[in-house]
Amino acid sequence: MSAKKNTLNKDAKEETARPHQPGQSDFRTILPEKIDWKPFAAFPPSARLAIVVGEPLKQGPYTIRVKVPGGVKLMPHRHPEDRVYTVISGIFYIGLGDEFDAEKLQAYPPGAVIVLPGNTSHFHWAKSGEYVTQVTAIGPLGLEYINAKDDPRSKGEQEYEIHERCSGSSSESN
Predict the structure, then answer these.
(1) Domain map of the chain by residue range?
(2) What is the CATH number of domain 39-155?
(3) Helices (DSSP H) in the chain: which residue ranges?
(4) Do you find a cis peptide bond into 140, omega within 30 degrees of 0?
(5) What is the pTM of this model?
(6) Can you spell out the DSSP letters for 44-90?
(7) At 4, is the secondary structure helix, strand, or coil?
(8) Tens digit of pLDDT for each residue in 13-48?
(9) Cα separations (Å) of 23 from 14, 29, 94, 166, 169?
């Protein structure tokens, strides 16, 4: 086994450097208190989104955080991209299907990881209080409500576009 490990280490060292993704060429940190929460037109007005890394509207990897206050529901919707959710805080309730059904909700505690394949209809409810999730995916980010009447964008309740770059939405330190 150690000969195989040495071969893998040698191969890894000889591999040429890969190009950096946007915003990932320098070491940096993003502290929780510096997360820049903003309204997002596709969410209910009280929910917030923060770009952590990447450019969600472009092709390529991105990481966002989503904060939903207690009692708020995100009605059935889907995303074209595969997504990996990590629960940061609170209890994250998610159910699968084209119709909101509280009986289908599953509760996930902080630290849980949920893999959601693209185009999977699902819904959320901050049933027991505020939650924060971190979403990692390959953009561009998309969100389509199953029933157009559930889409806040059609109601004109708020205006906000995701910033093309994450500069200004996080704190960098070396």
Answers:
(1) 39-155
(2) 2.60.120.10
(3) 2-14
(4) yes
(5) 0.80
(6) -TT-EEEEEEE-TTSSEEEEEEEEE-TT-EEEEEE-SS-EEEEEEES
(7) helix
(8) 556 778 887 777 889 899 999 999 999 999 999 999
(9) 25, 12, 31, 7, 12
